[in-house]
Amino acid sequence: MAAASTGGGLFRTDGGVKASSGLDIDAEVHEAWSRVRSGDATWILLEYEGKNKLKLRASGTSGPELVSGLVDDQVLFGGLRTKAGKFLCLMCTGADVGGMAKGRAAAHKNAAFNALEGTVGEVCALSKDEFVQLLISFAVAEDEATLLTVMTRGLATEIEVPHGKDLGYAKNRAIDKLWQNIPFCHAVAALSNLRMFDADSGEELQEGEAVQDGMKLLLALEEPGEGPSAAASAFASVVSAVGRHKLGLDGSGNAGSSREELQKLSLKELKKRLQEAGLSADGCLEKSDLVDRLLDNKKAFLPSTGDKEAAAQLAEFVSGNRKVPVDTYFIDSRSAAFLQAAPDGKQLCENLNFLGGFGVREIHGLTVAFLSGCGPKNGLGKNGFQGQSLQLI
């Protein structure tokens, strides 16, 4: 929903003309909404006075207060400010509201929402229960099987879900927040394959079960047991460190720069970063063009800084000094060191495999298309991929 503008008419979203809805908004509503916008309040509720006028019913700062103000025998409108600072319109149609009143409220909906400036979305419900938010905490287990699936420690989050939703819905909401902290491409799939357990009792829970407020859940590949072995911990740490560095999640390199940070750099520094990423400044007429190009490609073209450190960390496993505890496959980075040495791929040691330049492979029942390295338009030498590599894949 676009930001709403103030007005008393019925805004038609089907391209038709704006027609009068006959709805009157009490002046106190605008004063109360300005307090929400300024931060003095968090929400307001509006109720009917007669059949064609909305007046202020209540205003407050807490979620429980808002829910307690909802009733089953009225249609209430309102607005709120989220924790993220966004403003949303509200409409709650009580379960006992009659058909005529529902129809009248539906005709007034957009006029009521238009009265609240700055809103960017809406929350509509058919009962009080739908506004009740349940707080659930998720943590990812650190037993060996789970750690070697996500390669990351300390994953945890809290989410709010509406009353009536099941654990499958809650798990997906948690994954939306957790996957960004896992430094490899199939993070969502890895988390989706984990099972849910009650953190206190250890009982496995199913996705279709109802959410209960205050639940503490553990995501694990199998029933959580003892912690990981030293070998598994060491390997997971290496993979996590290398992956986070490559994706610019460790505070080093250039991939994590925000637009604001990039705007502060000189033209010379911006062009240098483009060159380091194997990108061209051709066609960039303004500073903003250089910034856009870096931001558009920061995830596709990984930083080269730290490749030597990454190779040193992997060397202990490649040499056989440490055992790789789980089947692992990787592609090359911008340095293309592995790509030039083994364009067709190579098993470096037990459980550690370089895939090669490009192609499609079956790995444990999963079809994987891959493309190694990145670089300037003229490619990476005789073993680097060219434009036709994409077509062949």
TrEMBL record:
Top-level taxonomy: Eukaryota, Sar, Alveolata, Dinophyceae, Suessiales
Domain (ARMET C-terminal): residue spans on this chain: 261-297
Protein name: SAP domain-containing protein
Domain ADF-H span(s) in chain numbering: 22-130
Signal peptide residue numbers: none
Gene3D superfamilies: SAP domain (1.10.720.30), Severin (3.40.20.10)
Pfam families: ARMET_C, Cofilin_ADF
GO molecular function (one): actin binding
